[in-house]
Amino acid sequence: MQVHRKKLRLSSALLVLALGATACGGGGDEPAGGDAAPEGEAGGEFSLYVTDPENPLIPSNTTESEGAQVLEPLFTGLAVYDTETSELEMEGVAESIESDDSKTWTVKLRDWKFHDGTDVTADSFVNAWNFAANSNNAQGASYFFANIEGYDALQAEEGQQVPAGTTLSGLKKVDDKTFTVTLTQPFRQYPVTLGYTAFNPLPDAFFGADGQPGTADDKAAQDAFGKKPIGNGPYQVEADFTPGTGVRLTRFEDYSGEAKGMADAVDIKVYTDVNTAYTDVQGGNLDIAPDIPPETIETAPDEFGERFRDRNSSSFTYLGFPTYDDRFADKKVRQAFSMAIDRKAITDSIFNGTFDPAYSVISPVVQGHREDACEFCEYKPDEAKALLAETDFDTSKPVDLWFNAGAGHDEWVQAVGNQLRDNLGVQFKLQGGLQFAEYLPKADEKGFTGPFRLGWGMDYPSPQNYLEPLYSTSALPPNGSNTAFYSNPEFDELVKQGNAAESDEEAIEIYQQAEDLLLEDLPVAPMFFGKEQWVFSEKVDNVNMDAFGHVRVSEVTVNQ
Q1: pLDDT tens digits along 251-307
Q2: Domain range annotation of the chain
Q3: Fold of the CATH domain 313-531
Q4: What is the DSSP string of 61-104?
Q5: How far is residue 182's CA from residue 393's CA, in Å, rounded to a whole number?
Q6: What string of DSSP letters covers 38-66?
Q7: Which of 119, 170, 223, 451 lies 20 to 30 angstroms, CA to CA, from 205?
Q8: Alpha helix locations (H) across 106-261?
C-alpha cells in the first residue's frame, strides 16, 4: 500500500524518552551498539519490488513510500531506528545530539564518507537543510524545517519570485564536525525526528561543480543527482534510476557504519500492479514483494509458510475531503459522509480482518491513541442521512471517489461508494486511473473533485507526526502533506502548545485536544489502521521490515 511517508510499529518508550530527556548521545568515535549481524553468508544478489517514486530521488523531496524505500539503503541519517522496536539509536552520523533547553541543539558528527569518497561534514547537513527549507526549491519535506529559526525568511511571499533569505538563521556551522540548530520554540521530541529521510546529508556534488549552494550550475547537478543519488549508506547506485524499470544497487564497501550490506547487489524493480509482483514472487522471478494483493491475505500464509511475514503497522488510511470544493466546504457534509461508512464491514469482508477500523487519526501504535476519539466515525446511517439533509448538498449530482491505480484499492473504495449510495442516496463515479506518481501531484494541485484515498505512516514515532504534517496551515502543499487544504488557527495553536510541553503527559493531553478539534471539523474521514504483509522467495532470508514500512535492504541475505 503506497503511503505518503514511512511506517510501522514503535516502542512507546521512545516517545517517553524523547519528551522526558534533553539529550541523545553515544560515546566514542565509533557507532555504538548495533543490531546483531544477520545470520547467513554475505554475497549474492536479490530483487525487490516498488512502484515508480513520485519525484526524483532527493531526500528532502521524497515524502512517499516508494521513493523512501529506494533511498533507505542509500543514506544514513544522524540517528537510526531499531528494526524491531523503533527505538532511537545513536548509530548514525551523529555522535551526540544535545540541548540544555530543548530549543538550541548541538549536533556532533562521527567520521563518515559519501559514496564519492568525500567527507560527511557539518556543511553536508547545513547546506542540505537550507536547500530543503527554501521555497524556491519546492521540496515536499520543506515543512519539516519550519520549526528552525529563520524558516519564514526562506518562504517567498505571494507575488515574489524569490524569498528574502537563503539560509536558516537558526542553523550554524561550528566546525567541520559540529553544528547547532536553534528552534523557534522548545521541542523536546526533536532528536526523534532526525532519523527521517528529509534530514539526510547531501554531498558537495549535489550543488554543482564548485560544491557551493546558490550557483548557476545547481539545477543540472540536482537533476543528475535525482537520477543517481550520491548517498552515505550501505549501498550505492550503479546507474541512473529508470522510471518504469528501476535501479541496481551495489554494496558500498567503504561504508562508515556498522550495519554493512550483506548482499553484493540489489535490483530494485518497478511494477505498476501489485498482483503482477506477487505472481512473479510465486514464479521465482522476483525475490521480495513488500506489499501483497488484499485477496491473497488468506492464502499467502499457507502458500509461503515462513516466507510470509506480517507485523503491526503505523499506516493510516483515510478518505480525504477536498475542502476547497464548495460541495465539501460544510463540515456537516463531511460528517454525514463519514457516518454513512461501515468501516468494520469493509475490514471484515475485504481485508479479512488484517486492517482495523479507524476511529481516530492517531495510530494505535503511538502513545496517546484513543480507540473512540471520532464521534462521526461511528456507523450511523440514519443520522448521516438526516445530517446531510440539513445542508445544501445536491444528492442528484454524482460524487467522484478517487484512488490510485494498481495497488488493490478498487474493491474497498467501491464498497465505500455502495454505502454512500445506499445510505445517503448519493451516486458515485470511481476515479482510479492514475498511477501513484501521477496521483500525488494531483492532490497537491487541488485536482480532486471528490473524496480521495490517501495513506500515511509515521516519519518518527510521535502523535504530533499524525497531526501537524497532515493538517496544519504550515503543511499546506507544496511545503507539506495537508492535501485536504484544511486550515484552523486554533488547531495550529494547540499543536504548537503540545510541541512545547514540559512533560509526556502534558503533551499527550494537548495533542488529544487538537485531535478532538480536528475530528469535529473532519477534513478527512479516518478509515483503517493497517498491518504490513510481505512475501519473499526461497532465494533470500532475513527479510525484515521496519516500523516505517521499509524492507531493511542491508539485512537481507542470499541463500548460497
Answers
A1: 999 999 998 999 999 999 999 999 999 999 999 999 999 999 978 988 999 999 999
A2: 313-531
A3: Dipeptide-binding Protein; domain 3 (3.10.105)
A4: G--SHHHHHHHTTT---SSEE-TTT--EES-SSEEEEE-SSSSE
A5: 48
A6: PSS-S--EEEEEEPPPSS-S-GGG--SHH
A7: 170
A8: 122-133, 190-193, 218-227
